[in-house]
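PROTEIN DESIGN WORKSHEET
SECTION A - STRUCTURE
LENGTH: 329
TOKENS:
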């Protein structure tokens, strides 16, 4: 095993990202990346630091023929991580990235459909109430509700289908992995190629979610000045559309980025975060239930969308609490 692979192996065993290791050594993340891809070799001072940080001998790091650490040095850091480790081949990695790209597009579309589902209900009810369509308000609302349920059913079907397709890759989120030779370099190259697109989509998505409230402010102004009933309804529909597009972009690009992080065991998919994220699905299921329950009971769709940004902010706090619990074990 060469030095590059030993650095990767020991970094992952401690649940550190490249940024974490770089901070401990007083170097840049790019330096660590070059060491791990065998594009550069750390100097002797850094070798000594690596030896101290990992708790291994310099002989183990420098000599390729030494594959295993002596028993006294082999004990990993006690951070509550799983002991099971699975090897990931180049073929498996390429197959997963291909699946993840498709799944990110479909799941983000499903999320967008869920947010858009009440738009027709709001529009039909408002148009009928204002007399713009020759349909009773009750009938219009029933039709809008039927469309809403169909859209949600379609979105849930997409989630279930992608979940079933991704079953064989669940181990990437649950257990520790070791990538075979060449996999890390391939994944990093693809991640670097996608980095600019990721930043652009994330920025646009966040901006759309923030400014989606602007139509509602305009609706309030026009409502007070002109007492126009239809305009606020159109503004609420526009708010939901902007929010839906913004959330789709965020989910799409974060899912794509998450695929690279899973294979590299970095970011949200570091070995520590894998254990901390076991109940993420429960968290978001509760958030969805609160959103739908509140919306159906109150029919205040122009207000209930606030559940999603609040859930997003609280999720960060929830994750930190879970990580603290994992570390304490």
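SECTION B - SEQUENCE
RESIDUE ASSIGNMENT:
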């Amino acid at each position: 095993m060469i030095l590059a692979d030993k650095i990767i192996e020991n970094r992952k065993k401690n649940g550190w990202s490249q940024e974490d290791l770089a901070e401990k050594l007083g170097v840049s993340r790019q330096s660590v990346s070059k060491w791990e891809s065998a594009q550069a070799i750390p100097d002797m001072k850094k070798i000594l630091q690596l030896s101290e940080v990992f708790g291994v001998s310099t002989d183990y790091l420098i000599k390729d023929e030494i594959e295993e650490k002596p028993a006294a040095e082999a004990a990993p850091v006690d951070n509550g991580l799983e002991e099971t480790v699975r090897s990931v081949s180049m073929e498996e990695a390429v197959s997963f990235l291909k699946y993840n790209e498709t799944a990110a597009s479909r799941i983000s579309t499903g999320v967008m459909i869920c947010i858009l589902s009440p738009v027709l209900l709001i529009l039909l009810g408002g148009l009928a109430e204002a007399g713009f369509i020759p349909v009773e308000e009750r009938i219009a609302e029933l039709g809008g509700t039927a469309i809403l349920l169909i859209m949600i059913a379609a979105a849930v079907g997409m989630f279930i289908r992608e979940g079933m397709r991704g079953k064989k890759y669940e181990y990437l989120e649950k257990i520790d992995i070791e990538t075979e030779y060449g996999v890390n370099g391939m994944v990093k190259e693809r991640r670097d190629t996608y980095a600019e697109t990721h930043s652009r989509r994330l920025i646009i998505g966040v901006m759309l979610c923030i400014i989606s409230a602007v139509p509602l402010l305009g609706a309030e102004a026009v409502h007070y000045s002109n007492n126009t009933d239809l305009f606020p309804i159109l503004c609420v529909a526009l708010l939901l559309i902007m929010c839906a597009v913004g959330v789709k972009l965020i989910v799409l690009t974060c899912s794509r980025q998450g695929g690279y992080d899973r294979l590299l065991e970095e970011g949200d998919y570091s070995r520590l975060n894998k254990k901390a994220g076991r109940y993420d699905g429960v968290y978001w299921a509760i958030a969805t239930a609160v959103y739908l329950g509140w919306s159906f009971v109150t029919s205040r769709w122009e207000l209930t969308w606030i559940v999603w940004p609040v859930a997003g902010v609280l999720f960060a706090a929830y994750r930190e609490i879970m990580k603290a619990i994992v570390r304490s074990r």
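SECTION C - NOTES
The radius of gyration is 25 Å.
The first strand starts at residue 85 and ends at 88.
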